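Per-record layout

source: Flavobacterium lacisediminis
name: Copper resistance protein CopD
length: 147
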Amino acid sequence: MYHHFLLIIHLLAATVWIGGHLILAFRYLPEAIKTKNLEKLKAFKNKFEPIGMPSLITLVITGILMAYDYDVTITKWFSFSNGIEKVISIKLILFITSLTLAISAQLFIFPKLTPKRYYYVSILIIVVTLIAISMLVLGSLIRLGGI
C-alpha cells in the first residue's frame, strides 16, 4: 500500500511537470516563435514555476522513496546491474541533465533573452520536454521489470 501511495503522488506530480512542459512546448512556444514576442513565454515561466518546482521536488522525493522500496539504494545507483536499476539510473541521469538545463536557463538564457536569441529558449524547452516524456516512459517500464 505504501508503494502504491507513493506511485499515485509521483504520477500526480509528473502530470503537473510534464503537462506544463507540453503546454509550453505546443501552445506558447510556436506563438512566440511566430510573433518573435517572448513575453508570453516569460509570463508562463513565472506562473508555472510556483507549481512546477514543487512538483519536481515531489517527483525527486517520491522517486527516491520508490527506488528504496525496490531495494535500489544509493549504493546501487548507476550500477546498471538489473532492469530496475537501469531505469532508475537513467532517470537520475536525465534528472541531473534537466536540473543542469534549468540552472543554465535561470542564469544564462532567460536574463539575456531577446527576440533575436529565441532559438536558445526554444531548444531548451524542447529538450526539457523530451527529457520529461522520456522519464515518464522509463517509469512505466518498472512494472515490466525495467529494461
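summary: DSSP finds four helices and no strands in the chain. The radius of gyration is 17 Å.
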